[in-house]
Design brief:
A motif ('KMSKS' region) lies at residues 351-355. This is Methionine--tRNA ligase. Its cofactor is Zn(2+). It is found in: Cytoplasm. The chain has 600 residues and is of the alpha/beta class. The protein folds into 2 domains: 4-135 and 181-342, HUPs (Rossmann fold); 392-526 and 570-600, Isoleucyl-tRNA Synthetase, Domain 1. It has 20 helices and 17 strands. The strands form 6 sheets. It has a 5-stranded parallel beta sheet, sandwiched between helices. A 3-stranded antiparallel beta sheet has the order 4-8-9. A 3-stranded antiparallel beta sheet has the order 6-5-7, with no helix packed on it. Strand 16 (535-541) and strand 17 (547-553) form a beta hairpin.
């Protein structure tokens, strides 16, 4: 029975292009997971979009003398193009400035407010001393009063995990201009997190399958749980849906509150765009559905504490949660099943910094290198369980010594020889024990790699796939069919047949990681149809007449299945080309020089 799998991907912020450190944390792992489950025949809904509200976008707009909407429009397109070129197979990649998102966000706010889970409190708001604008909590840094860490943020300390307010910090300073923020009394709306403390604690304690850092960080956060502000004094954001704010433009819903709601609103938009307005309920109100959230470690508590609290408070209520007389009447929205958090990626030993030039944007990278080469590196050497460093030397080494030399070499030597000598899948003779052993080992990879992917252990899964490819290379080197063919044509045909079967099975195993090259290999092997593409953009017109673009794909047409090869004898091959490019080591110095030029 196919499972319903929600793949909820962190929303990239639309105040600039995204760099490779961003997609290492949220994009590539989520796509690997989604592609695997589609190959398994499960019903996958992968959603996200650009996060387009808040002060950072207004700061960029002010600097350029334009509007926040213009900035959001620009970077929504740039980011969408980058994710398309990287092959991230969203069912819907949308944005938070749609009428649909506003409606869902306001419904959740209103429902929580009516149920007493949103309360009013007077507090000290942080404002920039130079611009007078509200400073987001994450734009304020200072010393943690509990552990002394001097780069604690205005919302939490990443060193000790404590929940903080900007006023808690010692010597707070603005990340915008380095000046101390100005604190002014102001009334805000707060999400009453302590009201959910016991439920959250019991629920998180039961999540034994979570990564230890996610579970421990979340439990630690619960120790000092307090109401969290969900509005800010600014003009750019989702309006507060209360009558007294109908004609006010000075206070909006805080960006973090509306961003996490985006997973739900994007699912609802997908259903509307597909002509099945209630189809989203199959994922959100189906007790058997499983929700997987992907993000960097700096967003853990938003997905393990704050968003679950909002879901618990909303339940099956409101305009969207209720399904009167329907299949899911009275069934609450589902909580996360797993929260897959990645660590941080650095670059040449330094923290990514756009302002300091220590960065390589996705679009810049893909203008010179293949997407699968980047996907390979970010998986095999990425920050899955610990902070890792991207260096150009390591990227070139991994590409040449692993991707090209192992998997690329196996495909090239097998297909080029078979195409030259047979032109189609050859008729094998009797299989020897050695033949059967290598076939069995690669076939077993469907299970072993699949188990690792299902557990979100992407690095180990890719390493196992590469080990299997290496075993087939060893088999060919020992059997030497290029020599055997001179004296025993049938035996050579058998060896190449076994190798082709292994390559065909490995093609499926590598597809979640390397979709572009896997699709080309699929075609070289003589197959038709898609196992990994294409993606597409679609223009959507809302009821208010506004249009926006979504990244999506017709994944129901994909023909690949997570099964061993059934490559038929006699299938005509297409002329193969090498799957991957070997990189000249001179690119290391060229790229380091580019980085140095950005540093000035």
């Amino acid at each position: 029975m196919p499972e319903h799998i929600l793949v909820a991907v962190a929303w990239p912020y639309a105040n600039g292009p995204r760099h490779i450190g961003h997609v290492a944390g949220f994009g590539v792992p989520a796509d690997i997971f989604a592609r695997y489950h589609r190959l398994r025949g499960n019903r996958v809904l992968m959603v996200s979009g650009t996060d387009e509200h808040g002060t950072p976008i207004t700061l960029v707009a002010d600097k350029e003398g334009t509007t926040p909407q213009a900035i959001a429009d620009r970077y929504n397109k740039i980011i969408g193009d980058d994710l398309y070129n990287l092959g991230l197979s969203y069912d819907t990649f949308t944005r938070t400035t749609t009428a649909n998102h506003y409606a869902v966000t306001q419904d959740i706010f209103r429902t929580l407010y009516e149920r007493g889970y949103i309360i009013r409190q007077e507090t000290l708001g942080a404002f920039s001393a130079t611009t007078g604008r509200t400073l987001p909590d994450r734009y304020i840094e200072g010393t943690c009063p509990l552990c002394g860490y001097d780069e604690a943020r205005g919302d939490q300390c990443d060193n000790c995990g404590s929940q903080l307010d900007p006023t808690d910090l010692i010597n707070p300073r603005s990340k915008v201009d380095g000046q101390p923020p100005v604190f002014k009394p102001t009334e805000h709306f707060f999400l009453d997190l302590p009201a959910f403390a016991e439920q959250l604690h019991d629920w998180i304690n039961r999540q034994d399958h979570w990564r230890p850092n996610v579970r421990n960080f979340s439990l630690n956060f619960l120790k000092d749980l307090k109401p969290r502000a969900i509005t800010r004094d600014l003009e750019w954001g989702v309006p507060i849906p209360l009558p007294e704010y109908a004609n006010r433009d000075d206070k909006k819903i805080y960006v973090w509150f509306d961003a996490v709601i985006g997973y739900l609103s994007a699912s609802i938009e997908w259903a509307q765009n597909s002509g099945q307005p209630d189809a989203w309920r199959e994922w959100w109100q189906n007790p058997d559905a499983r929700h997987f959230y992907f993000m960097g470690k700096d967003n853990i508590v938003f997905h393990t504490v704050i968003w679950p609290a909002m879901l618990l408070g909303y339940g099956a209520g409101g305009q969207f949660g209720a399904d009167p007389g329907g299949k899911y009447d009275g069934i609450p929205l589902q909580l996360p099943y797993n929260v897959v958090s990645s660590e941080f990626l650095t670059m040449e030993g330094k923290k990514f910094s756009s302002s300091r030039g220590i960065v390589i944007y996705v679009n810049d990278f893909l203008s010179r290198y293949d997407a699968d080469a980047l996907r390979y590196f970010l998986t095999i050497a990425g920050p899955e369980n610990q902070d890792t460093d991207f260096t150009w030397a390591e990227f070139v080494r991994r590409n040449n010594d692993e991707l090209v030399a192992t998997w690329g070499n196996l495909v090239n030597r097998t297909l080029s020889n078979v195409y030259k000598n047979f032109g189609s899948v050859p008729q094998p003779g009797p299989l020897t024990p050695v033949d059967e052993q290598v076939l069995a080992e690669v076939t077993g990879g469907i299970e072993t790699v699949g188990e690792l992917l299902a557990a979100a252990r992407f690095k180990a899964a890719l390493a196992e796939a590469m080990r299997l490819a290496a075993q087939v290379n060893i088999y060919l080197s020992e059997q030497e069919p290029w020599k055997v063919i001179k004296s025993d044509h049938e035996r050579a045909a058998t060896i190449w047949y076994v190798a082709l079967r292994c390559v065909d099975t490995l093609k499926i195993i590598f597809t979640p990681f390397l979709p572009f090259s896997s699709q080309r290999l699929h075609e070289y092997l003589g197959y038709n149809g898609y196992i990994a593409g294409p993606l597409t953009f679609r223009e959507v017109t809302e009821a208010n007449g506004r249009t926006h673009r979504v990244l999506t794909g017709d994944y129901d047409r994909w023909v690949g299945r997570w099964e061993p090869s059934v490559l038929p004898v006699g299938q005509v091959l297409r002329q193969p080309q090498p799957l991957f490019k070997k990189l000249d080591e001179k690119v290391i110095e060229e790229e380091l020089a580019r980085m140095q030029s950005r540093l000035g």
